[in-house]
Amino acid sequence: MPRNNFNVGGGSIDRSGDAVLVYGVGRTVDVEQVGKIVIASRDGVPIRIRDVGEVVIGHEIRKGAVTYGGEGEVVLGLGFMLMGENSYAVTTRLRDRFQKLLQTLPEGVEAKVVYDRTKLIDRVIATVRQNLLEGAFLVIVILYMLLGNLRAGLVAATAIPLSMMCGFIGMWQTGIAASLLSLGAIDFGIVVDSSVVVIESILEKIAHHPGASGAARQKLVFEATSAVKKPACFGQLIIMIVYIPILSLEGVEGKMFRPMAMTVIFILIGSLVLSLTVVPVLSSLFLPRRVDAHDVLLVRLLRWLYRPVLRLCIAARGTLALTAVAILGITLLRAMSLGTEFVPKLSEGDIVLGIIRAPGTSIEESVRMNTRIERALLDEFPAEIAHVWSRTGTPEVATDAGAIEATDTFIALKPREEWVRARTQAGLVDAMNRVVEGVPGQIIWFTQPIEQRINEMVSGVRADIAVKVFGDNLDALVRKAGEVAQVLKAVPGGADVAVEQVNGQPILKIAVKQDEIARYGISSQAVLDVVESVGGKAVGQIVEGQLRFPIVVRLPEPQRDGPAAIADIPVRGPAGESVPMGRIADIQTVLGPKFVTREWSQRRVVVQCNVRGRDVGGFVAEARAAIDRVVELPAGQFRLEWGGQFENMQRAQKRLAIVVPLALLLIIALLYLTYRNVADTALLFVSVPFACVGGVWALAARGMPLSISAAVGFITLSGVSVLSGMVVASALRERLTRGTARDVAIEETSMASLRTIIMTAMVASLGFIPMAVSEGTGAEVQRPLATVVIGGVITSTLFTLFILPALYRLILRVPPAVIMLRDR
Predict the structure, then answer these.
(1) Tens of pLDDT, residues 481-506
(2) How far apart are alpha carbons 336 and 700 in whole angstroms?
(3) Biggest CA pair distance of the chain
(4) Which of 393, 423, 584, 603 has a CA that sits 20 to 30 A from residue 381's CA?
(5) Distance (Å, whole) CA 593 – CA 528
(6) What Cα–Cα distance (Å) separates residue 394 from each residue in 62, 407, 409?
(7) How confident is the model over 163-176, as pLDDT tens digits?
């Protein structure tokens, strides 16, 4: 074939001044021409390929298969997205193109969509939209209840849509898509905080100057806004600063949480500008000329309850301070006992059942077993499963390659309200596991479509945890990996433990006998050409237009169906004699390595597992201790690495451990720039750990581990907790500057600031309540963040109302020359 199927170039010849190219054509173009190629001649009679073999159009060795609905094989098409594209937009265009394709299908051919990512996106966005709308409604209600003025509440609430508009403009300019994470940390209570402070000050001014209009009214609004511009401005700046650590995250965690931080910063910038520009303008135009100087009934009741408790706290300030320190210490111990994980597991609404069968399992056997599992699942869970399909091996275009023994079974679920066998996805997975674990000869684990892909991209495995065992000796590696797997199975919370199947591949080994081929004068090449022809030896190409098809020599089925048949294959010697393959080669079936995986030029075997019913960080810590105690890993011969979600969590923790303290130092610097006072700066910063007290106990009460989502909540608290304290500190310093007595100034400031503190706290916490209690798709990621903020705002408010005045009473006993550096 190689000598009879090619084209050549002969350079060029000069003819009458023209250069004519010489082109020799000998390439075959169809099956008939291949069959006519002459391979020998006997007595003038040509012997052609078609005389000694059959020339047919065949197919490549099959490496993959897809089954659907327990009914057998189907053809699957996958849509792949280019880097940097928007998945929702691309999937929508694919769906539209698919609908047009359906119109061109021949009669009897049916095509349907088996997985569409936009359904998950739509459900998640619906959850976010519902949480935001409910949060905005609660914020507006609280504003009206505490301000006692509908117009003032509506003016403050205008910051919500206008700030969101600023956020959307920033997202559009920076290419951030609306998603669960980019919109998941928005709290309209925090958005209106600065506007609430401004409105509160304006209402107080108008109440003390009733009937003012025109230029006098505008002057009142200007003075009221100027009086609180510093705490309002610096408070929002501090909240923005605390999001800087999130911008520094890398890897998967950076991709997930950086859009969230940028969106919040855009919205807070808009909120800050609006509170100092639009809100005062609207106040001067729409607020009534006369405002009742008396508080609403709810605020009067709160003041009546607050005054005696405040006096008691100030009187027992030493005891209260010691109690506060003790609470901080107890909370620190409780925080250290919290579990840790990367991010809460998002319930995608679909399940992937991963299956690994014994090395050497044929495609036909995999198809049979997949069909059996699909039928079993559909029979057991008719109310839960919409459809199920399985993908085995590698497709023609190996963009999503897999081993023949590996199968991914995709289970599309019906809406949760239709379920009968379980109420949660975790419960449904447990029920499915009991159904499929009885099928012999396979290792199974459960995951989700997007979760599986992220895990595979990050650590190369499709589970939560990957333990990589490195070494040089393959057999020893497999043995040590098995020991590690046994330890992981014994650790509570470990599920779907599986060792990468390296050995056990059946191999038909054909070893050339050098002495025998030397005796017959046969080359190794002649023997190995026959061996290669068992599967197919490429000897050329046929070109049809733009397509190229290989020409392959392959032995007929009777001569390749087993070791005995291969041993009888004749190999021609130099003198024309035929020697059976079995005489010049050893043919035996052995077990060998399926593949050898290397990482950084070192062999490795991976043990993978999922974690159920406990936090990932606690599981890894316990598993590490157990492996160190049980598995002997001599130094220099073996080494372990932990990957998967745990790797992401560790990387994020290390980065935040560096950047968060820097952000806190920036907060301290801003506080000092605001007050030029060490005492005020220190006292206001103490509100940060007291805010964390509530966040820690809120997580503990709801049984939630410390995750990156919860860490974002603590970061948010660091800024929110300082804002109400700044209002108190600014008002207190103003009274002391006017010469008000110390005790009177502390009590008057606390009483006067009560409504502002309660209002900012309630709008900040109630804005997160819909996220904290939501059960919609994607709520798992928002829930820890909202829980931390709500709990933290509660303790931060208690600190500002009761502990901060007591601490000021303690501190202000030192001479004014030391404390009031600002006045000097």
Answers:
(1) 889 999 998 999 888 888 888 877 78
(2) 11
(3) 129
(4) 393
(5) 21
(6) 9, 10, 14
(7) 989 989 998 988 88
